[in-house]
């Protein structure tokens, strides 16, 4: 994917993950993009440990992998910060 698609994909994934984890009010668009992109990398890494493919394009499978990674990322940050 090109850089523009990564930004769009990351923003969408980060926004949905922040709504699921109820952190949307604390995050702006830039943080949503960062969470989405880092979540996609994390989700791809987790899936590779399970023997599956990671994020490979703008499709439903990649979206779900990235969303799972973004949710795990937000969860890890909450554990580190000690918030609910």
**Number of helices, counting only DSSP H or I runs of 4 residues or more:** 3
* Radius of gyration computed on alpha carbons: 12 Å
Q: Give the CA-CA distance, first to last residue.
A: 35 Å
Task: Kindly state the percentage of residues in helix.
Answer: over 70%
Question: What value does the average pLDDT take?
Answer: 86
Describe the structure.
The chain has 84 residues and is mainly alpha-helical. The chain has one domain. The chain is built from 3 helices and no strands. It has helices at residues 3-20, 29-49, 60-81. The mean pLDDT is 86.
Key traits:
84 residues; mainly alpha; single chain; 3 helices
In short:
The protein is mostly helical and 84 residues long. The protein is built from three helices and no strands.
């Amino acid at each position: 994917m090109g850089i523009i698609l990564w930004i769009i994909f990351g923003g969408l994934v980060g926004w949905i993950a922040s709504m699921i984890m109820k952190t949307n009010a604390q995050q702006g668009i830039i943080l949503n993009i960062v969470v989405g992109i880092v979540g996609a990398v994390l989700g791809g890494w987790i899936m590779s440990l399970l023997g599956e493919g990671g994020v490979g394009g703008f499709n439903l499978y990649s979206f779900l992998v990235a969303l799972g990674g973004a949710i795990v990322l937000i969860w890890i940050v909450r554990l580190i910060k000690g918030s609910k």
